[in-house]
Amino acid sequence: MTENRQYNSLDIIKFVMALLVAARHMIQLFYPEQSKWRIVIGSWLSNLAVPYFFIIAGFLLFRKIGDGRSEKDRKVILAYCWHTFKMALLWSLIYLPLDIHDWWYGKDRIGEWILVYIRYFFLDHSSMHLWFLLALITACLLVWGAYGAGAKIWQILTVGGVLFVIGCIGDNWYFNQQLPENIWRLYRIYFTYFVTVRNGVFYGAFFVAMGLWFAKARIPIPFLASASGFLASAALMYGEVRLCQNVNMVFTSAPAAFFLTAAALAVPRLGTGRERMCKRLREMSQWIYLSHVYFLYFFAWTAGQNPLSGTKKGITISVFLPMLAFCGAMVALSERKS
User: Fold this and answer.
1) Which of 2, 210, 244, 266 is the most exposed place for a label (fewest CB within 10 A)?
2) DSSP-assigned letters across all residues of 237-300
């Protein structure tokens, strides 16, 4: 898409965020409990990734449409959502052998597992990262529906912000354990039917609406102001993570992701020679995000025969080296006409 090539800084940060997601899951699974990286990457920096992905997706999508009411706008939105759904379905099939592996070594009967799998496919996902794709579809449809119906961007952001706060409280034990019993009862009823707040309603809509704001904003935020806002928000985010001791979404990830996106958009466009490199990084970031869980499984299966797997450095090399080699190869192959 031509829109992507005009914002090379977005591609660079997207690549870094994809690496952080892979590192987050690796650290959560394999690093010792006392490791400082569980806080620094597993709970802090990696929590910027999903909000950033939502914002950039919304920004690039809504740059292509006008007021959201025309037939052309409708076709653009639906085509994007259909493409994303096909990607979610394809990668669900790719991960199906791992899901079957987990079932085989679990306790569920085959019929129970199939019903749970179908339920989780639509409400969360059996894979720890593919939930984002269906959440993105939901969020884009909600924001487009409101925008096309005539709602102001600030109104969409306000409603999305309220939903985001509700989701953060419900997803964070530090806050939800302090709720009054009658409110916590409502959360329990919700979780009984909808499994999680990690979806396009409570997380995605707010950040996709931020992307809409960036797409339609007439006055960009200067780099110095946005960079300063990001550093301040990131510091607050670290404090919140230390306070809550929670690896899930945190409140201050919202301003941090907002200012990070603003800072990236304020960076001047790179030269033509570097655009190709940024395009490759963008494609690699997608491959890393979608495929990295397989490399976590491969490491777990081969750890007994791996001479490097006894240390944090050995774990990181064993996971990241084959993952980056694979993703780089897939990008290179995609550039070959044959």
Assistant:
1) 2
2) HHHHHHHH---S--TTHHHHHHHHHHHHHHSPPPPHHHHHHHHHHHHHHHHHHHHHHHHHHHHH
Please state, in angstroms and rounded to a whole number, the distance separating the CA atoms of residues 233 and 305. 43
Q: Which two tokens stand for residue 39?
A: 């806080």
Q: Which residues contact 16 (CB under 8 A, 6 or more apart)?
A: none
pTM, 2 dp: 0.92
pLDDT digits (tens, 9 = 90+) for 78-120: 999 999 999 999 999 999 998 888 888 777 788 887 888 888 8
Q: How many CB atoms sit inside 10 A of residue 301's CB?
A: 11
DSSP state of 152: -
Q: How far apart, in Å, do the first and last CA atoms of the chain sit?
A: 21
User: In whole angstroms, how far apart are CA 38 and each of 79, 95, 131?
Assistant: 39, 26, 22
Q: Which residue has the tokens 């550039």?
A: 335
- Here the tokens at position 79 are 């085509």
Q: Where are the domains of the chain?
A: 1-35+272-338, 49-269
DSSP tag of 222: P
